[in-house]
Write a structure and sequence with these properties.
The chain is mainly α. Helices cover about 90% and strands about 0% of the residues.
């Protein structure tokens, strides 16, 4: 199960970087929706995997990171 966990962590980093770049440079009419959905899905998967592995602190970190990524979009909406 650790291999799957590592893949989800890498996916979160990549999607998070893309979301940050999209927020800084584009903020397009429909691209923000794709970015928010992507970070919410990957963040939720990471949270579920970490709760399943009983890594509570890391699960809380993914919850807070996902909320932080989405807050900029929700404030602007």
């Amino acid at each position: 199960m650790m291999k799957v966990s590592k893949y989800f962590q890498i996916a979160f980093l990549i999607v998070g970087a893309l979301v940050a770049l999209e927020f800084i440079f584009m903020r397009g009419m429909f691209s923000w929706f794709i970015a928010v959905i992507a970070i919410m899905v990957v963040g939720a998967l990471n949270t579920i995997v970490n709760i399943k592995n009983k890594e509570w602190l890391q699960a809380a970190l993914y919850i807070l990171s996902t909320i932080a990524f989405c807050m900029g979009y929700f404030v602007l909406a």
